Amino acid sequence: MTILLLGADGQVGFELHRALAPIGRIVATTRTGLLPGGIDCARCDLGDHAALDALIETTRPNWIVNAAAYTAVDHAEAEPDLAHRINGDALTVIGTAAKRVGSRVVHYSTDYVFNGTATLPWREDASTAPLSAYGRSKLAGETALRESAAAHLIFRTAWVYGPRGTNFLRTMLRLARERERLTVVADQIGTPTPARLIAQTTALVLYALRNAANDDARFGTYHLTANGHTNWHGFASRIIELAHGSGLIERKPEVVAITTAEFPTKAVRPAYSVLDTSKLQSTFGLALPDWTEGLARAMGELNA
Ligand SMILES: NC(=O)c1ccc[n+]([C@@H]2O[C@H](COP(=O)([O-])OP(=O)(O)OC[C@H]3O[C@@H](n4cnc5c(N)ncnc54)[C@H](OP(=O)(O)O)[C@@H]3O)[C@@H](O)[C@H]2O)c1
């Protein structure tokens, strides 16, 4: 089995490269043609649609796993066309080429397709209404992939972090070393999700579908996050506690709760973006761990 992995140097892509290794031969791609560590790999820019189509045509993979995306949520407000080209239009290219050569597609989307007004976890069939250019571009990608009629899985995830890349965990640890007081938004609720959990779950699902026909009812859209929920202030507080307890930081800064209104950003974020993962868990017989467990494990890796 051949798996074409797009975006192998992102948070999720890096973890997928390891997690998918036992399942098939991986053709990894990055925008630069280099993997973390400087090893050569194939080059793929989702903005170059002709090259993307040609790559799929020549590779003819069993699965295309797309972990690449324009993820600069605030920047996207200033360059919505570029975000749309990479997160939206590229999925028309991937889906159409996949359908043509008989590949299946795994794609990742976001809690930011929702407007955040719910009070119960969002189900897959809830109405979407993105508040930001990034959210609109990701929703366009979902729609494009569905319309291509390629067999696909769309995993909507949220609040992704890990021991590498740019993410909230690493930012908090850096700020904790620099400052005595951190102010963190407490009125946005969601579920911190380790990149590794996303990759490992993807591997389990791909393995479960290895003998499935392309019209198998298990293809479709799923919510994939850790269990439970918190707010950014709660997430930051737990990071600081664990980091201090394990000696990763010498001194505990004060973590002060503020409101979104006190920390304006270019892109509007949903206030409540907890995703209901019961469809994924019941369809594939999985048990997703609580976000606090995932955080403790990720912190353990930072310590190692
Ligand atoms: N991060 C989150 O909190 C979050 C939340 C919900 C959903 N998601 C979704 O989860 C998926 C994985 O996200 P992540 O956190 O792993 O993101 P990430 O760490 O920002 O990685 C994104 C990857 O995409 C690559 N990329 C950007 N523009 C590209 C282009 N034009 N062509 C090819 N590659 C390009 C980046 O490469 P460069 O290093 O060259 O820029 C990077 O390797 C994405 O679909 C994202 O939308 C993420």
Strand-helix topology:
Layout: E1 2-6, H1 11-19, E2 25-30, E3 42-43, H2 49-59, E4 63-66, H3 80-101, E5 104-110, H4 133-148, E6 152-157, E7 160-161, H5 168-178, E8 181-185, E9 189-190, E10 193-194, H6 195-208, E11 220-223, E12 230-231, H7 232-245, E13 254-258, H8 278-284, H9 291-303
Parallel strand pairs: 1-2, 1-4, 2-3, 4-5, 5-6, 6-11, 7-10, 8-13
Antiparallel strand pairs: 9-12
Helix pairs in contact: 1-6, 2-3, 3-4, 5-7, 7-9
Index terms:
globular; alpha/beta; 9 helices; binds NADP nicotinamide-adenine-dinucleotide phosphate; 304 residues; Rossmann fold; 13 strands
Q: Could you explain the architecture of this structure?
A:
The protein is α/β, with parallel strands linked by helices. It has one domain: 3-Layer(aba) Sandwich (Rossmann fold), CATH 3.40.50. Helices cover 38% and strands 17% of the residues. The strands form 4 sheets. Strands 3-2-1-4-5-6-11 form a 7-stranded parallel sheet, sandwiched between helices. The protein has a two-stranded parallel ribbon with strand order 7-10. Helix 1 (11-19) links the parallel strand 1 (2-6) and strand 2. The longest helix has 22 residues, at 80-101. The two termini are 34 Å apart. 47% of the residues are buried. The model has no long low-confidence stretch (mean pLDDT 96). The structure holds NADP nicotinamide-adenine-dinucleotide phosphate. Residues 7, 9-13, 31-32, 44-47, 67-71, 86, 108, 110, 138, 157-160, 165, 195 line the site of NADP nicotinamide-adenine-dinucleotide phosphate.
